[in-house]
Write a structure and sequence with these properties.
Distance between the termini: 59 Å
Number of strands: 0
Number of helices: 3
Mean pLDDT: 81
Low-confidence stretches: none
């Protein structure tokens, strides 16, 4: 049971990576409509959205890895899991923020190129 958090994080990261792979291969229809409502180049947007998903998938993967190593090497499982949850929350927020900025930069670049 001590490895449950790590297993769940690895499974969640793998599912996000699978979703990113499906979207990246042209699955624009898999992106929620609110995020992709005003996009002209759907294929490029899907690829950029998949990059963001891959970055976000890194947070639970790193958190699960730290939890796994910490549980194996440490006697304080509760402290290790607490630190892993903090890393998960901070990492997800950081990757989402960076991803949103990346998507908005791509959108602005596409708009300015069309106006030239």
């Amino acid at each position: 049971m001590e490895y449950a958090f790590s297993i769940l994080m690895f499974v969640f990261a793998a599912l996000l990576m699978l979703y990113a792979a499906l979207v990246g291969r042209g699955g624009f229809d898999m992106i929620p409509r609110g995020y992709a409502a005003s996009v002209d180049d759907k294929k490029a947007y899907a690829k950029n959205f998949a990059k963001v998903l891959r970055a976000v998938a890194a947070a639970p993967a790193v958190s699960g890895l730290i939890a796994l190593v910490g549980v194996i090497l440490s006697e304080r499982d509760d402290l290790v899991i607490g630190i892993s949850v903090i890393i998960l929350i901070v990492g997800t927020a950081a990757f989402l923020t960076a991803g949103v900025k990346m998507l908005s930069l791509d959108r602005n670049t596409d708009n300015t190129e069309g106006q030239k």
